[in-house]
């Protein structure tokens, strides 16, 4: 049975908000929007159940908000029709094409889509599938982790919400999009959103290393050899962006071009100068690690794979990103991935021929 979600358009009709893909990021963003506007969620039953029971939203600075959805806001399937809505598209890249095909027959021309995927290429693919719909590029610049015991979504790293700013955006659309503005996730408008996407990609390159070494993120960052590998991946990305004349904005306290140097610091100095990177739940792991554990295809093609691909197009060799992408792909097809032992950074460097 289909669910009706039709909003009649009148002169003063407000935009509704729909989170398509309510997982970690979608539920966090939706919970923030829900502080000031009505929002509906489309996602997996486990996340819909958590939202219906009520969740806390927090950050490492101590800010906090509460959110609880009612039954009518939690949908397991796409509605029969979506009109006059801001659609926050938070599915992973690996599920994006399928979701876009499902959206085609139900989305009305007066909707706005905000693509919130990691890596590169999601916005272009969305515009290809939905040519009559206004599509904006949004970037969630932080990591979010779930604490089951506390029923809590925590913003575990620095970073805010960065949103493409077209010159012709209608005032009522701008006002509706500002619902994502909150002390837990500040909204920053950007005309050069591509550069922001590359800057976020630089940070996301560590996701693959976390998946490979099979360690919590904090443990990985306390291993200098792991940090050296991440720094090498970032060096290649910076070479690609330089070749493409892309100047990366600053998303963290450390400017993008200095991040590799900070990661290479001795442990004692890294702990003192980069303490913000370590403000993270001790057991937190990257979403790519969770995908591997669950036997799902990862987003590696949109992260390290995208760096290697753009490097090839730009005449910049990216052998380390290519090797990391290949290693993750081999883990995707391994029957023993869930039972593997953790790796230390020096062993990882050996596997990647960096020693």
Automatic annotation (TrEMBL):
Domain Ketopantoate reductase C-terminal: 193-332
InterPro entries: 6-PGluconate_DH-like_C_sf, 6PGD_dom2, ApbA, Ketopantoate_reductase, KPA_reductase, KPR_N, NAD(P)-bd_dom_sf
Enzyme Commission number(s) of this protein: 1.1.1.169
Pathway(s) annotated for this protein in UniProt: Cofactor biosynthesis; (R)-pantothenate biosynthesis; (R)-pantoate from 3-methyl-2-oxobutanoate: step 2/2
Signal peptide extent: none
Reactions that this protein is recorded to catalyse: (R)-pantoate + NADP(+) = 2-dehydropantoate + NADPH + H(+)
Membrane spanning stretches: none
Keyword 4Fe-4S: no
GO biological process: pantothenate biosynthetic process
GO CC annotations on file: cytoplasm
Keyword entries, A-Z: NADP, Oxidoreductase, Pantothenate biosynthesis
Molecular-function annotations in GO: 2-dehydropantoate 2-reductase activity; NADP binding
Domain Ketopantoate reductase N-terminal as annotated: residue spans: 18-163
The organism's place on the tree of life at top rank: Bacteria
NCBIfam families, sorted: apbA_panE
Similarity comment text for this entry: Belongs to the ketopantoate reductase family.
Protein name: 2-dehydropantoate 2-reductase
Annotated organism of origin: Alteromonas alba
């Amino acid at each position: 049975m289909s669910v009706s979600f039709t909003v009649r358009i009148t002169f003063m009709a407000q935009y509704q908000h729909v989170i398509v893909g309510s997982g970690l990021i979608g539920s966090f963003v939706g919970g923030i929007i829900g502080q000031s506007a009505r929002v509906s969620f489309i996602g997996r039953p486990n996340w819909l159940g958590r939202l219906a029971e009520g969740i806390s939203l927090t950050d490492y600075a101590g800010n906090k908000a509460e959110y609880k959805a009612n039954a009518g806001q939690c949908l397991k399937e796409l509605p029969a029709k979506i009109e006059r809505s801001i659609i926050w598209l938070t599915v992973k890249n690996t599920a994006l094409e399928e979701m876009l095909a499902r959206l085609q027959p139900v989305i009305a021309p007066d909707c706005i889509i905000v693509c919130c995927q990691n890596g590169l290429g999601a916005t272009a693919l969305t515009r290809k599938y939905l040519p009559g719909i206004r599509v904006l590029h949004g970037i969630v610049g932080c990591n979010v982790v779930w604490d089951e015991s506390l029923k809590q979504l925590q913003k575990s790293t620095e970073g805010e919400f960065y949103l493409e700013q077209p010159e012709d955006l209608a005032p009522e659309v701008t006002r509706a999009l500002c619902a994502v503005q909150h002390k837990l996730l500040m909204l920053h408008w950007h005309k050069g959103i591509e550069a922001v996407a590359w800057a976020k990609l630089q940070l996301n390159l560590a996701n693959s290393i976390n998946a490979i070494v099979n360690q919590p993120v904090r443990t990985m960052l306390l291993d200098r050899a792991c940090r050296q590998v991440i720094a090498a991946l970032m060096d290649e990305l910076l070479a690609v962006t330089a070749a493409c004349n892309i100047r990366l904005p600053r998303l963290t306290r450390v400017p993008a071009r200095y991040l590799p140097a900070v990661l290479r610091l001795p442990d004692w100095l890294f702990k003192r100068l980069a303490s913000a990177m370590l403000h993270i739940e001790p057991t937190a792991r990257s979403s790519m690690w969770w995908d591997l554990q669950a036997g799902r295809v990862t987003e590696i093609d949109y992260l390290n794979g995208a760096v290697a691909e753009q490097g090839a197009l730009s005449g910049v060799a990216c052998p380390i990103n290519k090797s990391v992408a290949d290693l993750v792909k081999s883990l995707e097809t391994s029957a023993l991935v869930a039972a593997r032992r953790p790796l230390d950074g020096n062993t990882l460097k050996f596997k990647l021929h960096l020693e």
